[in-house]
Amino acid sequence: MAKQNVAEQFVDILARAGVRRMYGVVGDSLNPVVDAVRRNAAIDWVHVRHEEVAAFAAGAEAQITGKLTACAGSCGPGNLHLINGLYDAHRSMAPVLALASHIPSSEIGLSYFQETHPERLFAECSHYSEMISNPQQMPRLLQTAIQHAIGQRGVSVVTLPGDVADQPAPDRSFESALVTSRPTIRPGDAEIDRLVEMIDQADKVTLFCGAGTAGAHAEVMEFAGRVKSPVGHALRGKEWIQYDNPFDVGMSGLLGYGAAYEATHECELLVLVGTDFPYNAFLPDDVKIAQIDVRPEVIGRRSRLDLAVWGDVRETLRCLIPRVREKTDRRFLDKMLKKHADALEGVVKAYTRKVDKHVPIHPEYVASVLDELADDDAVFTVDTGMNNVWAARYIQPNGRRRIIGSFSHGSMANAMPMAIGAQLVDRNRQVVSMSGDGGFTMLMGDFLTLVQQDLPVKIVLFNNSALGMVELEMLVAGLPSYGTTDVNPDFAEVARACGVFGVRVEKPKQLAGALKDAFKHKGPALVDVVTDPNALSIPPKIKADMVTGFALSASKIVLDGGVGRMLQMARSNLRNVPRP
After folding, report:
1. Cα atoms in the Cβ-side hemisphere of radius 13 Å centred on 315
2. Which CATH superfamily includes the segment(s) 356-574?
3. Which of 10, 80, 121, 139 is 20 to 30 A removed from 461 (C-alpha atoms)?
4. Which residues form the Thiamine pyrophosphate enzyme central domain (predicted)?
């Protein structure tokens, strides 16, 4: 049997770590690795049209599966294109191994054609970024990179010169066990004791939950019931905590709705649960705050804390539940539930009057109909901008759906690339890309990847021919909108020219039928919905110091934002509030 080269051993180690796909664009320095993938039955090469898409797709797959994924770019410009998608994956805590192939090792540092320094360039968007300069390094260095990505939940980057990849591999006897899963972290006894004391002393407790509550829904509900706490959430916590939640008071922050803001400000003790909520202007500064998180580096960086608790959310709550005293006074909880329902009642009216006749179509109506027609286990990938608003307020989680977006990095053009990675995990699961026309056209070349890979992704294109969020930002600054208008084609015709099912919707009565037809279609499909460019949204609570990166306007074109079927849940929860 011929001796392996470094590239073949590299791919074997990735396969042992559970990697099933490597996304990328082929190139000369990458050829040894791509050829090794071709000859390894355990890993598929997913050819995309742009390396940024490769990184977004790998990050989405990692978020869906929780397992290590991989992407690759050739030397210089090839791997540079990975950087935006890797930033997103890293900030989303998605375990991704990125291979940055490099120029010939003998030419490094001599301004060779396409020379960059990947080990430096990717340092800020990774937990680990190192270069293999000798075949003997490779197994240990790659194992270290894998364990950083999995253990710290984020990106590792390995730089590999093409000539080194083609050299004979070191002895396989080095192979050792790989870390492929994370441990459970329990807080120290002193922190548990202090948190129990703080909870027992407070008459009004609020929980504010983030993505760290994944897998802990039952524990959060049991704990909230025990201490009679309202439960609010950040955007990344929505899919994990909002469903089947009789304590729900909505979402705080720039896309917020309901009574989450009031609940966090009117309590005596606020417990931040698995959230690195970035908008400290929405957090109170005059109540006691405790924070529970498995990542000690994020604890206390958004607000002043009275107690820091380092531990997994589920394990921490399991420690707390039997020890905290059960509260009997529901007055604070019931007050917040009523405020929440009243808030939703008020804003929902803006989009219940003749929405089925309004032309151009209200985007809120599109999101609402999409929510009703999509599968109960659908994966929604969401473009940054106004699509974040519509997904946050209309797409309802249920414990089986997933909602993925560039929620921490805030990149345009993420939805369709993420849909590629999500769909490759399971071709039989419905994947819906909620794309804006700005984001879609930015990386539109990879629309062809759906065709080439025969991926049944359904793209619902919110086409308002504008960069809506940017227009809103200009509005608050007192500036006329400029440079925000898109001159778009009929995207349905573009889709059909690419061999994809395409339909254009200009009237509300056409919408449901078009979505049903697209969902029934076995291959990729695009529904181009012409939406109202004047449909904008603002948070329910906002002050001057909250508007960085967002906007506020008293203009009549700015609406307060609907909330769809969340109102039904709020009304249902309100039935449990005792009447005087």
Report:
1. 13
2. Thiamin diphosphate (ThDP)-binding fold, Pyr/PP domains (3.40.50.970)
3. 80
4. 192-320
Whether 402 contacts 65, CB under 8 Å? no
How far is residue 98's CA from residue 449's CA, in Å, rounded to a whole number?
20
Domain borders along the chain are 6-166, 189-341, 356-574
- The pTM (predicted TM-score) of the whole model is 0.91
CATH superfamily entry for domain 189-341: TPP-binding domain (3.40.50.1220)
**Cα dihedral 92/96/101/102 (nearest 10):** 50
Strand pairing of 96-102 and 21-24? unpaired
Residue 60: which of 428, 434, 416 has the closest Cα? 416
Question: Does the fold of domain 189-341 match that of domain 6-166?
Answer: yes
Tell me how far apart the alpha carbons of residues 431 and 421 are, in angstroms, rounded to a whole number: 10
Q: Tell me which residue of 474, 467, 502, 471 sits closest to 488, measured CA to CA.
A: 467
* Contact in structure between 15 and 43 (CB atoms under 8 Å): yes
Per-residue b/e over 34-59, b at no fewer than 16 CB within 10 Å? bbbbeebeebbbbebbbbbbbbbbbb
Q: Distance from CA of residue 117 to its chain's centroid?
A: 29
Q: How many residues does the chain have?
A: 580
Going by C-alpha positions, the residue among 577, 570, 567 that lies closest to residue 245 is 570
Q: pLDDT (tens digit, 0 to 9) for every residue of the chain, 580 residues total?
A: 568 999 999 999 999 999 999 999 999 999 999 999 999 999 999 999 999 999 999 999 999 999 999 999 999 999 999 999 999 999 999 999 999 999 999 999 999 999 999 999 999 999 999 999 999 999 999 999 999 999 999 999 999 999 999 999 987 655 677 777 778 899 999 999 999 999 999 999 999 999 999 999 999 999 999 999 999 999 999 999 999 999 999 998 777 788 999 999 999 999 999 999 988 888 999 999 999 999 999 999 999 999 999 999 999 999 999 999 999 999 999 999 999 998 887 665 555 456 777 888 989 899 999 999 999 999 999 999 889 988 988 899 999 999 999 999 999 999 999 999 999 999 999 999 999 999 999 999 999 999 999 999 999 999 999 887 777 667 656 677 788 888 999 999 999 999 999 999 999 999 999 999 999 999 999 999 999 887 755 555 555 444 444 333 322 223 334 455 555 555 555 544 544 3
- Quote the distance between the C-alpha of residue 448 and its chain's center: 23
Residue 480 backbone phi and psi in degrees, to 5: -70, 145
**Rounded to the nearest 10 degrees, what angle do helices 83-91 and 51-65 cross at?**
20
Whether the Cβ atoms of residue 335 and residue 247 lie closer than 8 Å to each other: no
Q: Which two tokens stand for residue 167?
A: 């050299």
Contacts of residue 461, Cβ cutoff 8 Å, sequence gap at least 6: 435, 436, 437, 440, 491, 526, 527, 528, 529
CATH number of this structure's domain 6-166: 3.40.50.970
